[in-house]
Amino acid sequence: MKTLILCCFLLFSVSLAYTQHNLVANGSFERLNVARGNWATAADEFNQGMKHWKSGSLGSPDIFIDKFLGRYSKRGSIDIQAHQPRTGRIMAGIKTYGYSIGTTNTKEYLQIKLRKPMLMGEKYYVEFWVNPAKGAMTSNKIGAAFLDTITSQMRGTYKTLDYMASVELDIEQAIDALPNQWIKVSGTVEPYSDCNYLVIGCFWDDDAVEFGNEDCGTSYAYYFVDDVRVCAYKYKDDFSNMDLAIGQEVALDNIYFDSNKSILKDASFDELNKLVGLLDKKATMKISIQGHTDNVGNDQSNLTLSTNRAKAVYEYLLEKGIAQNQLSYEGLGEQKPIASNTTDEGREQNRRVAFKVLALDVK
Fold this sequence. Notes:
It contains five helices and 18 strands. It is α+β, with helices and mostly antiparallel strands. It folds into two domains: 230 residues, Galactose-binding domain-like (Jelly Rolls); 121 residues, CATH 3.30.1330.60.
């Protein structure tokens, strides 16, 4: 079996908006089979309550619904009511440290079968968000493992899952933050074999984990988890190899914004620099940058957001020296979907930035 581990680094911001299809069904934990307002006492309670996700071991991850937070019984010094889901109404929670000092049901893991396999040698972007529970210990080495198969032996333990075949990223300090100051765990991975499963948790024994806040009154580390994404990168060497035509719309892959924001993330620059190269070579080519959204939310807000995102790309191209007479921009909101807005996958495809060819180089 080949396994890939992704560990976390700290970024204090809000989520990215993607053009790529998320391989994780129910990545924001919003879909439930059963709505409960209490801690899970067994793995099956989580398994039966949450759609698509399972406990990765005998430990019992928890489901937290915003309107039920006042119902949860007191556990040590943990203050559940200080927290809210990062997005939506529901988040998950897991213990990441404490087995070695006698705390039961640790470690806890979140496990899901991906919508389709991650393919060996392909490149994927992985992201999820964590927030340490107020009043609990903190720990480091929270990560994501990708596996080809899951066996009953793997799930039949309360101990650390031995998924340590490869370590891609790591951090040195315990992950600490205030309530609702969500921390992004993210990075790129290239699987060593085709992978069907994602597991989130701490894959190191306690003696290899750095912990903090040990005087909190709770004998374990506990983290809320929300907004899990695994997206395949789309490759293009450059745009100059494409057979372009006037009126053609070309999607800009790997363009990232903060959620409901129009500020470009640094990860967008590689894609945009390829477009800069094309426009440099074809000095009389003219394009219109077009922003699109799904149909969720207010029509006017979507139109404004799509316009501002298109403008952000337009301004980046200007900053890179592209002549203003080669460029224009417009926001189209939800007017031109390329997929159904009735599914998560369709809405993800509809949230995009593209360029439309207005004139081609005459040389």
